[in-house]
């Protein structure tokens, strides 16, 4: 087998996968649930939901975060996913990972409970500014909160625990963040900057504040009465996404080095495509140009044609606009071949894990290849006639899958696509 890809670059292999979502901890439990079409979306119990327009989410409820805030939950999720991936890879010793860390984490800012506590502790009256709260957090008994809400703290803590090398990279590119973390790992290995990379996407930001903010954007489903059926990608009656929590981690390696140490190779990341879209802060360009460009860039980077893609792991958020734009992009790139390519969305079962989504879906794509089984898009009971795709409706499907396109399209025009393969394309 050749040592380089079609472009003469180092092959990037996956040797470890870790995953945690509302469906369970570990890739085995998650895969069993995903392929059985089980939903992990339920009514929120972590905090009061009175007055909220959306009262459901795919929260990971067996966590006991202290304090209960996005950075702490995100770190716990990332740690569980990383431990599974690093253990499977067999690379290095505990606390001595021989490579870099690339971590997608949610945007961090102090949350309402902490702001309220700081305001009470300060003894101030009248309007208290965000600057006032930060100053209060940096002193006295609240100093730890100040450190907690610094962007990069989650990655610093994971880097220290696993002994990754160099300065850990924290990134946030909206809903494509998890895929971007993998892309950065791939590019670092290709350049020869590192022989291994721990790439993580994590998000534990189901909070009252985030639910309200997304509700103000009319982005969330309000079909609260039947939580398990609320997320329905590509259906005519879809009305918004459902927030989810989770994390996924991949151990990437220089394929030659992985083989030399006797590692089991689970698959290859053979292509990455990225395209920014300055059309709007949240909406995609209505002509789909950036999405189309990101897909094409990923295919070209991988050195494959649309006809070589066996399955598309969709971004598939269940919002009216995003599903329509993704379908337009795929149909434009794949043309008539799109009739032969199944495309499904695991967000129908775990919700939208936001910053983690691209990593979770890359892990799911690898498991699809390894198992020969495509997870379904559940809740597909009212097809949208404007989206004539094979969405693998409601029931998983056995299929030989060797090459997957995994799509991630984020708010603010952050579009990242990965091509994942069972074998290198040379």
UniProtKB/TrEMBL annotation:
Pathway: Lipid metabolism; fatty acid biosynthesis. It is an enzyme of class 2 (transferase). SMART domains: PKS_KS. Gene3D superfamilies: 3.40.47.10. Keywords: Acyltransferase, Transferase. Pfam families: ketoacyl-synt, Ketoacyl-synt_C. Residues 9-422 form the Ketosynthase family 3 (KS3) domain. GO terms for molecular function: 3-oxoacyl-[acyl-carrier-protein] synthase activity. Its EC number is 2.3.1.179. It comes from the Bacteria. Belongs to the thiolase-like superfamily. Beta-ketoacyl-ACP synthases family. This is Beta-ketoacyl-ACP synthase.
